């Protein structure tokens, strides 16, 4: 007779995501996960598999949450400039109650060179982010908010690269004001 789960799968996955996001894959032990998630080791293995599988699920959960947040903010924006500012603010300030930086960027830096699964998930997330930026830039170009001197796709690649840098710098003690200045200059480059 199987026992019913005594925990919410999404809730404990979010806890694992937060821990991986804060500490990285290598520094997070199974004991850390069991303690932080508040479930038994056996339940962790039965529900999520091994540490690597749990990490990949945590990456998927992170991407889903970020994409949902971005989509909501972009859709509610009245202008492309407002939508882009919303996206940039998430790059700099991250998610409420979340560690600094970005789980996808952190994971790519830590593991992508030697882990094909992490590389695939990271590059897919980066492609999704670039596509969202491209749509915002195209919107701004169409409405005359942004210069049409450059292709929206090329500009989205550039801005995403700036964003990856900002997310990396956000993990340091660099003042947020400096990150905001970098973002502001990048946004100004889009204007006519």
Order of helices and strands: HHHHHHHHH
Share in helix: over 70%
Q: SS-based structural class? A: mainly alpha
CATH H-level superfamily title of one domain: Tetracycline Repressor, domain 2
Rounded average pLDDT:
92
Count the DSSP helices. Answer: 9
Strand percentage lies at under 5%
Provide the low-confidence segments as ranges.
none
N-end to C-end Cα span: 68 Å
Number of strands: 0
Q: Give the CATH topology of one domain.
A: Tetracycline Repressor, domain 2
**CATH structural architecture of one domain:** Orthogonal Bundle
The whole-angstrom Rg is 19 Å
CATH class of one domain: Mainly Alpha
Characterize the main sheet.
Answer: none
Shape: elongated
Classify the oligomer. Answer: single chain
List keywords for this structure.
Tetracycline Repressor, domain 2, 71% helix, 9 helices, 192 residues, elongated, single chain, mainly alpha
Summarize the structure.
71% of the residues lie in helices and 0% in strands. It has a domain at 59-188: Tetracycline Repressor, domain 2 (Orthogonal Bundle). With 192 residues, it is mainly α.
Overview of this protein structure:
By secondary structure, the protein is mostly helical. The protein has a domain at 59-188: Tetracycline Repressor, domain 2 (Orthogonal Bundle). The protein is 71% helix and 0% strand. The chain has nine helices and no strands. It has helices at residues 9-23, 30-37, 41-48, 51-75, 80-93, 103-111, 116-142, 152-169, 176-188. Helix 1 packs across helix 4 (51-75) and helix 4 packs antiparallel against helix 5. The longest helix is centred in the C-terminal third of the chain and has 27 residues, at 116-142. The protein is elongated, with a radius of gyration of 19 Å. The relative contact order is 0.11. The model has no long low-confidence stretch (mean pLDDT 92).
